[in-house]
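Encode chain A's predicted structure.
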Amino acid sequence: MRFSSSKLAKSLFNRVVPGLICWCLFSPAIAGTTSTPLLLRKPTVSRTQIAFSCGGDLWIVDPNGGEARRLTSDVGIETDPFFSPDGAMIAFTGEYDGNEDVYVIPASGGIPKRLTTHPTPDQVVGWTRDGKHVEERGEGKR
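Encoded structure for chain A:
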């Protein structure tokens, strides 16, 4: 059976995300307690990993399950993760100074790099197909 890349991504998304949501809601590794449900938001799927926002930070986990690893732990709020087409980088919206800006971080972890600086909010909406540029909405300048 042949799948186009969009059909494969949709199939993977439809199978993995519901399980990941359940895992996040009930996992003591993230929650610290099984009695407190958490809200998993805006997952993004690469060929080898799933990244998501939970508790204002970005997390990454293997699509087959396992323990999620926190990618960010800054004082601000990180949301809207998007994998680059090659899966090496994750673009996200970060709010650190009272304003949303666009950042990237290696999928393996590291220090986020700020891409936009503007007094109005800038939010990640994806990557260009070639993976060279992050797509955003807002009035930010790079």
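The longest strand covers residues 77-83.
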